[in-house]
Design a protein that fits this description.
The chain is α+β, with helices and mostly antiparallel strands. The protein has 43 helices and 43 strands.
Length: about 1250
């Protein structure tokens, strides 16, 4: 039974959830209704806040198959609950007449997943998701995704499009003809409208949601309570504050919704043409598109309303919305395996692996290319929220909660305050009963103590520091869409950097070329643009093997391609639409050298000149293009020289990959050494290759050939050497981070040795440090996976004869201190393939490699995300800085992701820098640290404020008195609010320091600081309260009491006689009240100064002019009304007149209190800096962070780091813990 009741949906995915079924129970509902009436609606609120309780209180468990309501719980660390109502989709609403037409409609794919099943099997397709007789499908919607009941798996499953389980063959064979109108209508019923609907909630809806926040409900309760106790002014002030807070909150929430709505509305409804089965073209709204529709891409381009795979023609697309890369990308049609080499036909289509053939939703198609008047067609694979843009919008609409120790501790602290309030509550009731106070008064006063202990202004106070930090970040050009992350950035202790465009300049400069002739390298050449090379295959490859296109007459495309094309100085011409329509086999793109290079290229006499005039029109047409793929690390083209019978294939890409696809006899013997020399110097190297194609390959065959048939058996032609200069600010920024004990890691798509060289140049790896390259090989031919360890020579050792000798001595890890993890003497470097193998087969090595991994090269976008996760698993707080191009996932996953791209892709990143420079990283960390320390200061201050006020009220309750309405008002508005909002204004300290701020409130030093201040304040308040009773002039105060000088007293009393009867009711005017009011008012200011920390994370508090001015003004004002009473002020604040001598005594109490408080707070700071490290080293305490614990372990591990030229093998059978053994190869 239990198995039937609890199931998992989205298994293995980020949004994996447990699902439980429930049915509504009438008797439970009746009991809950009664409870709601009895509690005056409070139970209803409680059930509104807790979906789990709501469902369990009103429903009974049921089998998921037949339930009315589902309860969902996330399986991550947050264990969040959601509930959703089951709805029924009736297929009878759509006129499906005969069973025959029904099976036709289903033969193209069943209801949930449009895989290609045989028609017979698909006849039962619908019954998987519904009861066939009634034609009804049960489903629920959660976070904008529909989950349908699937009978095959006996669970709910979300609707998939053509992006899963569909082979490339079937895309052409089964889906390229288009849908019938009936099938389209049927799918429309299931998939719904194709739109990413970001509904902007009405102000009323937002208001209700905001007002029903537990915090505002507590404030409402407080206001009602104070009003019944006749604290009208204070209640009114809190109401005004709450309204201001709600209005500002509503404004910012609605503004974000409107921004998001505008962002997705650009393509929400456009008119599109679709092909139907009978070749007819129908024009429909984009909202009516369903997976399987064949969409015609218009000539003049469009904004894509869905994800679609190209099956005809070529498109130039701007994908900046998704990737942040403003460079136009060329998309070609999906290779058709049925006309290609056999054996590839089973490859499944996947939008990620086939992204060069997929047009993504929200991206802009700038131009289309087509042949022989054919239409450019694409098959819709995903619609609505399933599209790549839809998923991005969903991640913004439903973000994962940020798990940060500070917030967890804040809740714990609030619980402590509630416990303290509970004690006060019981004390007040007992004290009032003993003094025979009326029941009504007891209830009001005992509840009042709760509202005093839990300060209503706490959430506003806590966010003040973050808001100010956000404003300061904006001033230095860093924009933030997730303000809560600013505090988390204060904890960052490791930052990952992308290389190209982040650490180095965006563009590459051509340094030179090194050609190969007869399998030997020629000497490097600087100039490619000369007559000698103009007709060489090498230059032809540079001229044709690229994805450049002309947009409005300007060459655009990949910056690397542009640089290469500009270096040869050729001209690119593209066919116009008219030409394409006229000629049967027009080549869409033609390249030719400039005229001045050609005639001079023939050093012939006049008589021969005429013969050369004809072929002087030397042109190469690009027949077919296989775009660059980061997975394959290469691109290739098929081209033909004008007049030649045979076509040529050209290829360029990563040297290792290109060399492996060339005939071994054409690759120079010293290829590896030459390549290594260039990469060690930090050059980016690209290899070129070429081969003549067979004459039987016609233009038409080439259009359908697979790239594997072209990309083999090539002739190696040589290398292009590109220079990627470091950005000017890079070394200085990295040095600042190292000084601050913040580790830096490079994650790049570039060659490993180039990356290691750049890491050395920028100071990420110091000259004396060792680099260990981990080369992991997957299991093959029955052999287990293994890692080969090589020690990369440092640059200085390259030409040194002792290079081999030095490799034999591994350098042992040296630490100055535990924290000083940056002082490691060795670094690991690996590429993406090795990283994947290690993750899969060597799980126990992953944490060790994370501790010292510095260079990760040739990393694919998803591997970057996996790396961030692996670092977070060893308790690093990880920052990621990239240009947004392919770092979206990593930027989102990191604790603090900062994108250097101003484009819309930055919606994936919590932070975006206006200036594309990594100097924003230390700035962000500094501001994060300042905001974090501000949060601590404010929290400590608010805690003290509530305890001081709580104790003042408890003392006064003991004599059946209380603070007056205007006394509360003065303390809460004039003192607390002013202090809280000005103490948060301290700007960040000028530089990053090695010390790191604490991450949580529950730390020894912090708790000791708060507790010591509480004891001091309680002590001095009690001293004043009890000492005033010992004074010779003291008596229980009554309207005619005269403790002051006669004249002063008469003046004061005469002005008050009218109001006495009213004031006596609450017994507010007495000597104890006046004493406690003055001492506590000073105490608030004393702890504000004590807690306003400056160095090393914030500027000193004397530089915070608003704070200094506010505190001085309040000090002077309180001191003035204490020493020189003003009748009108005393009347408003309900202060009684006390002798001048007692006023001076109070001043002395306050001064001693200030001295003790500030001295103790300073000593706590000193104790933390001096004694804590000593105590830790004496106690041999195990560090909390996994990486620090691991560092301690590795210090005594004789087997680590691995010795050079050794191999680590995975143990074949023990797979679950990924154990491994080390084998030394001699």
């Amino acid at each position: 039974m239990d198995k039937e009741e609890r199931k998992i949906i989205n298994q293995g995915q980020e949004d994996e959830m447990e699902i439980y079924g429930y049915n509504l129970s009438r008797w439970k509902l009746a009991i809950v209704s009664l409870g709601v009436i009895c509690t005056g609606g409070f139970l209803l609120l409680l059930l509104y806040w807790m979906p789990e309780w709501r469902v369990k209180a009103t429903c009974v468990r049921a089998a998921i198959k037949d339930c009315d309501v589902v309860l969902l719980r996330t399986t991550d660390e947050f264990k969040m609950w959601f509930c959703a109502k089951i709805r029924v989709l009736s297929l009878e609403t759509h006129p499906i007449s005969s069973p025959k037409s029904m099976s036709n409609k289903l033969s193209n794919g069943h209801a949930v997943c449009l895989t290609e099943n045989p028609t017979g099997e698909n006849r039962h397709g619908i019954s998987k998701y519904s009861q066939a007789e009634s034609q009804q499908i049960r489903y629920f919607t959660h976070h904008s995704v529909k989950y349908f009941w699937n009978d095959t798996i006996h669970n709910f499953d979300f609707l998939k499009g053509l992006d899963e389980g569909v082979s490339c063959t079937s895309i052409y064979e089964k889906h390229s003809a288009g849908l019938t109108k009936g099938m389209h209508a049927y799918r429309k019923l299931l998939y719904g409208v194709n739109e990413i609907a970001v509904k902007v909630p009405s102000v009323f809806k937002l208001l209700i949601k905001e007002v029903l926040n537990p915090f505002y409900i507590f404030q409402l309760f407080s206001v009602i309570l104070w009003s019944t106790d006749e604290y009208y002014y204070y209640a009114l002030a809190i109401v005004v504050m709450s309204i201001v807070s709600i209005v500002s909150s509503l404004y910012s929430i609605r503004k974000q919704y409107v921004m998001l709505h505008d962002m997705v509305a650009t393509h929400s409804t456009v008119r599109v043409s679709v092909c139907r089965v009978n070749e007819e073209i129908e024009e429909i709204f984009s909202t009516d598109l369903v997976p399987g529709d064949v969409m015609v891409i218009p000539l003049n381009g469009t904004i894509m309303p869905c994800d679609a795979v190209l099956i005809n023609g070529t498109c130039i697309v701007n994908e900046s919305m998704l990737t942040g890369e403003s460079v136009p990308v060329t998309k070609t049609n999906l290779p058709n395996p049925s006309v290609d080499v056999k054996g590839i036909g089973d490859e499944l289509y996947n939008p990620e692996t086939h992204k060069r053939h997929t047009l993504f939703c929200g991206t802009t198609v700038i131009q289309t290319r087509f042949y022989t008047g054919e239409l450019v067609k694409a098959i819709v694979v995903r619609t609505g929220f399933s599209t790549s843009k839809g998923q991005l919008v969903r991640s913004i609409l439903y973000p994962k909660p940020t798990d940060f120790k500070l917030y967890r501790d804040a809740y714990l602290f609030l619980l402590c305050l509630v416990a303290v309030a509970g004690i006060g509550f019981i004390y007040t009731i007992i004290n009032s009963i003993l003094n025979e106070v009326q029941v009504g008064v007891i209830i009001i006063e005992s509840l009042d103590i709760i509202t005093i202990t839990v300060p209503p202004a706490l959430p506003a106070a806590m966010t003040a520091g973050i808001v100010y930090a956000q404003r300061r970040l904006k001033k230095i050009g860093i924009f933030c869409i997730s303000p809560q992350r600013i505090n988390i950035c204060g904890q960052l202790n490791l930052v990952c950097f992308d290389k190209t465009g982040t650490l180095t300049e965006d563009g590459l400069d051509l340094w030179g070329i090194q050609r190969v002739e007869n399998a030997r390298f020629l000497s490097p050449e600087e100039n490619v643009c000369n007559e000698m090379l103009v007709k060489s295959q090498f230059v032809a490859c540079l001229a044709t093997c690229h994805s450049l296109t002309k947009i409005e007459g300007v060459l655009s495309g990949d910056p690397l391609d542009l640089k290469m094309f500009e270096a040869i100085g050729w001209i690119l011409e593209e066919a116009t639409e008219e030409e394409t329509a006229l000629h049967n086999r027009i080549m869409p793109t033609v390249v030719r050298p400039p005229k001045q290079l050609l005639p001079e290229s023939t050093p012939a006499g006049n008589q021969e000149m005429e013969l050369f005039e004809l072929p002087a029109i030397y042109e190469i047409g690009i027949v077919r293009q296989f775009p660059f793929s980061s997975a394959l690390q290469r691109m290739s083209v098929v081209a033909r020289v004008l007049g030649d019978k045979k076509m040529d294939a050209y290829m360029k890409g990563a040297p290792e990959v290109i060399a492996s696809l060339c005939k071994p006899e054409t690759v120079p013997v010293d290829f590896q050494n030459v390549l290594e020399d260039f990469t060690k110097q930090g050059f980016r190297v690209i290899a070129l290759a070429h081969r003549k194609l067979e004459s039987k390959l016609t233009w038409h065959k080439v259009q359908n050939i697979s790239r594997d048939a072209i990309e083999n058996n090539m002739d190696f032609m040589g290398l292009i050497i590109m220079q990627n200069k470091l950005k000017q600010e890079t070394p200085a920024v990295l040095e600042d981070l190292h000084k601050a004990n913040i580790r830096t890691v490079m994650v790049t798509g570039d060659n490993m040795l180039t990356a290691v060289s750049v890491a050395r140049d920028c100071g990420m790896i110091l000259p004396q440090d060792k680099v260990i390259i981990a080369e992991a090989l997957p299991p093959k031919d029955g052999k287990v996976a293994k890692i080969n360890w090589h020690y990369a020579d440092s640059l200085t050792q390259c030409s040194h004869p002792s290079a081999i000798a030095s490799e034999a001595t591994p350098v042992k890890l040296v630490h100055d201190s535990l924290e000083d993890l940056q002082m490691t003497r060795y670094h690991f470097a690996m590429n993406g393939k090795s990283f994947s193998v290690i993750l899969e087969h060597f799980q126990d090595l992953v944490p060790k490699l994370m501790l010292h991994g510095t260079v990760f090269a040739r990393m694919a976008p998803d591997q970057k995300t996996q790396l961030i996760e692996a670092l977070q698993n060893v308790d690093y707080f990880v920052g990621m800085c990239g240009d947004g191009a392919n770092d979206c996932g990593a930027l989102k996953r990191a604790h603090g992701g900062i994108s250097l791209s101003e484009l819309e892709a930055s919606v994936a990143s919590p932070f975006t820098s206006k200036t594309p420079s990594i100097s924003c990283v230390p700035n962000l960390i500094r501001e994060g640290r300042a905001a974090l320390i501000t949060s601590f200061c404010v929290f400590k201050f608010m805690a003290l404020y509530s305890i001081i006020q709580y104790f003042s009220v408890t003392l006064l309750y003991s004599i059946l008195s209380n603070l007056g309405d205007f006394q509360f008002l003065f303390i809460d508005l004039a003192i607390i609010l002013v202090v809280v909002f000005t103490m948060s204004l301290n700007p960040a300290w000028k530089e990053l320091v090695a010390q790191r701020p604490p991450s949580g409130l529950i730390s020894g030093a912090l708790l000791f600081s708060v507790l010591s201040q509480i004891i001091i304040c309680i002590g001095f308040q009690s001293l004043g309260f009890f000492w005033v009773k010992q004074q010779p002039w003291y008596e229980v105060w009554h309207p005619k009491s005269d403790a002051c000088n006669a004249t002063g007293s008469l003046l004061w009393n005469s002005s008050h006689l009218d109001n006495e009867t009213e004031l006596d009711e609450h017994n507010i005017q007495n000597y104890e009240n006046t004493t406690v009011f003055f001492i506590s008012s000073f105490q608030y200011l004393i702890v504000a100064i004590a807690f306003s920390k400056g160095k090393p994370f914030r500027q000193p508090c004397y530089k915070n002019y608003f704070f200094v001015f506010s505190v001085i003004f309040l000090y002077v004002f309180i001191l003035f009304i204490m020493l020189y009473p003003v009748a009108s002020v005393d009347q408003v604040l309900q202060i009684v007149c006390v002798p001048y001598q007692w006023r001076v005594t109070m001043l002395i109490i306050v001064l001693v209190n200030a001295f003790v408080s500030i001295t103790v707070e300073e000593s706590v700071d000193r104790w933390r800096k001096c004694c804590l490290p000593w105590a830790l080293s004496c106690g041999k305490k195990i560090p909390k962070a996994k990486y620090m614990y691991l560092a301690q372990e590795l210090l005594v591990d004789p087997e680590w780091p691995p010795k050079p030229q050794t191999t680590t093998e995975a143990k074949g059978l023990v797979k679950e813990n990924g154990s491994c053994q080390i084998i030394t190869i001699t």
